[in-house]
Amino acid sequence: MTPGEIAVMVNSGCSLVALIVAIWAKLTARNASDIAELRREQAEEERRLAKIEALLEQTPRADMVHELRVDVAKIEGALAVIGERLKPVAQVTERLQDWLLENKK
User: Fold this and answer.
1) Domain boundaries, the chain
2) Is the N end or the C end of the chain the one with fewer CB atoms within 10 Å?
3) pLDDT category, 1, cuts 50, 70, 90?
4) 59: left (phi over 0), alpha (psi -120 to 50) or beta
5) 2: DSSP letter
6) Quick one: what percent of the chain has pLDDT higher than 90?
7) What is the dihedral of CA 21, 23, 25, 30, to 10 degrees?
8) What letter does residue 105 receive in the DSSP assignment?
9) Which DSSP state fits 103?
């Protein structure tokens, strides 16, 4: 082989390697619009995650819910007692109203 033939073969090999690298780079590279879209999607996901975290922070814990249930039960019991104690007052009021209607002039 002559040095000219070797130079042609080396140049051809380099050109082939350059072509393969260019094709590979084109196939694997992302363009600017793809990157911008990925960033927008990431920002949207971060916003949604922050919203979910805020909602979870406002959600009462199990022990707090239990305490609320106990307190509501106590209030219901107190209201039942008040209702029972008001029955005689209602009866007296009804009798007084009847008496006033009978004795009106």
Assistant:
1) 60-105
2) C
3) confident
4) beta
5) -
6) 50
7) 180
8) -
9) T
Mean pLDDT computed over 81-88: 93
Per-residue DSSP letter, 14 = H
Rounded to an integer, what distance in angstroms lies between the CA atom of residue 27 and that of residue 24?
5
55 pLDDT above the threshold of 60: yes
Q: How many CA atoms lie within 13 A of 28 on its CB side?
A: 6
Q: Tell me, what's the pLDDT at 105?
A: 54
Instruction: Kindly state the tokens that stand for 71.
Output: 């307190």
Q: Which residue reads 């995650």 in tokens?
A: 49
Confidence of residue 103 (pLDDT cuts 50, 70, 90): confident
What pLDDT does residue 85 have?
93
Contact between 57 and 64 under an 8 Å Cβ cutoff? The reply is no
Q: Which amino acid is at 67?
A: E
Q: What is the DSSP letter of 8?
A: H
**Contacts for 68 with CB less than 8 Å, ≥ 6 apart:** 60
Q: What is the DSSP letter of 1?
A: -
- The continuous run of DSSP H or E covering 30 comes out as none
